[in-house]
Specification:
The chain has 179 residues and is α/β, with parallel strands linked by helices. It has 4 helices and 9 strands. Helix 1 packs across helix 2. Bound molecules: 1-O-pyrophosphono-5-O-phosphono-alpha-D-ribofuranose (PRP), hypoxanthine and magnesium ion. Its EC number is 2.4.2.8.
Length: 179
Amino acid sequence: MENAIQQVLLTEEQIADKVKELGSQISRDYAGKNLMMVSVLKGSVVFMADLMRAITVPCQIDFMCVSSYGSGTESSGVVKIIKDLDINLHGLDLLIVEDILDSGKTLHYITKMLSDRGTASIRIATLLDKPERRAAPLTPDYCCFTVPDEFVVGYGLDYDEKFRNLPYIGVLKPEVYTK
Ligand SMILES: O=P(O)(O)OC[C@H]1O[C@H](OP(=O)(O)OP(=O)(O)O)[C@H](O)[C@@H]1O
Ligand code: HPA
Ligand SMILES: [Mg+2]
């Protein structure tokens, strides 16, 4: 697994520090609100688990599972909802938790879909932002790191369902996906 990585972009320590910092900021911003954290599976599972434990105000959590990349490195443009949320969102302050904002197609679709459900507010927290690839008009409200236009894996992010369990974020060697 490690020999498919060209470069470690973000170490475990760098990620942990930044996630704690973001947790404190979100805790300040959501004091007195009805925070509902929505994790967009599968990629956000690791970030969600760490971020929710860095938040000190009361919150609910729920999960939705969507997919648009399949086994490629470019968005198919078709966002498939594999599992929708279970909880009624009326009056809740939604924080959508994503691992990466890349083309923006996934979050554009999800925010539009969820804004029809009577939420009090919707914000986006993403671990990584790759602005050079943006195709849909979207900016995150909270972001831990901006990354260059390279395919990254680890800390939940996959290529063809692999590498999610790497504890750091690494750039995948292009020969892994150009073969
Ligand atoms: O901004 P975009 O170009 O839409 O890319 C971002 C989305 O792509 C990845 O999901 P993917 O479809 O790979 O599903 P996964 O989370 O199960 O890996 C990632 O987890 C984001 O949800
Ligand atoms: O760079 C990426 N890596 C893994 N999954 C992704 N989904 C969008 N961009 C990426
Ligand atoms: Mg993926």
